[in-house]
Amino acid sequence: MQKGISPLVATVLLIAITMTLAGIVAFWGASFVRTGLPTENQTQTLQACTACTSEDLQLFSYYYNSTSGNLDITLQNKCSYTLILHQVVFKYSNGVTEIKDVNENVPPGLSRKTVTNVPQGFVNFMITTTCKNILLNISTGE
Fold first, then answer.
1. Which of 23, 69, 104, 135 is the most exposed place for a label (fewest CB within 10 A)?
2. How confident is the model at residue 46 (pLDDT cuts 50, 70, 90)?
3. In 3-state terms, what secondary structure has residue 42?
4. Domain coordinates of the chain in residue numbers?
5. For residue 84, is pLDDT > 60?
């Protein structure tokens, strides 16, 4: 006559296997949720990029102070979503390009932003947002 394992040992083994599988699934599920779902900010940026066009962001005015090296820009966001001003790209007559990271929110309506430490002599500048389809290219006329 053959003997099997006792019911107590079988119960302990079943519980151990179940707990191990539950731990593996919980670890996988937690990492999936962390990396698989967009954050609230990413969702808002995606909504802004699909709902807004380049015509929704307009340059209201700009002023360059050559003494301080500050460029004050006033933007009008006609879109109903907040846009994120990503960079201002300056181009000079000698072909040099300088990029200033801004990374500031531009809520609907008028917003004033200041870009600091801008060298003199730029002939145009481009304002980019985190939305590839929304940018402004401004020629200074100098």
1. 23
2. low
3. helix
4. 7-37, 53-139
5. yes
